[in-house]
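Late entry, zinc ion complex.
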Amino acid sequence: MRGTGSVANKQDFCFCIPIVFGCPNKIKQEGDGTPYVCPRCNNAQVVEAKSRMWFELCWIPLIPLKSNHVWLCGICNWQHSRDGGFQPQAAGAMPPPPQQPQGYDFKRLSSDPPGGISGAPCADNLLVWNAVIFGPAETPFEDGTFKLLMTFDEAYPNKPPSVKFLSKMFHPNVYANGELCLDILQNRWSPTYDVAAVLTSIQSLLHDPNPNSPANAEAASLYRENMKEYVRRVKQTVEQSWIDETEDASANADEEAL
Ligand SMILES: [Zn+2]
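Prediction complete; structure with ligand written out below:
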């Protein structure tokens, strides 16, 4: 007998000890708590704060790493370094100047774009965006280039933008007119979401539909009962999306904006 059983048990025991470490940021309010107006969401919820990174073991902060002083919005999580000299408008001092939160979104989207999405405001109207979602790999939507139109109103990001597909789409949660049934664009919206977050959610909806709240009954029932035919119909829309590409998308967008 070589007692392999007890060796295996020992190994199991070792693998069971969870050692979790990370370097999360902890935010602490500083100053006297005077509220400033957020340049992204326009709420008077910006305060001075210190953001400090901690080395953490099993969720217990052990070693303080670098820290920096930031402006922080309590509503939409907008953050900006306080070192550069930029200061938001003090609340109540005077009416805030007209802001364009979409400008902040564009900066974020162009400096650190998540894979498979892109978007930019129309040249003459920051409130209307053209966006593209590339079909996720290893799904029936692979290789598709799907165009979307996003329309913002003045209340954004306190209210969600309205989003619709311009490209023809065959999907359980997309209506025939291109509008979407997606919780974060309706009752589960949060001002912390930006354009990148919205497009990323739509991209993951493509390969992970919710057939329980169908916007396209035919697509939903094929998805549940006839996957082969569902995939065939989706591939048709993928091919259609390449043909759409040769058309002038900006003409569509201008029509929508009116
Ligand atoms: Zn804000």
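The pocket of zinc ion is lined by residues 38, 40-41, 43, 73, 75-76, 78 (CB under 6 Å). Will revisit in the morning.
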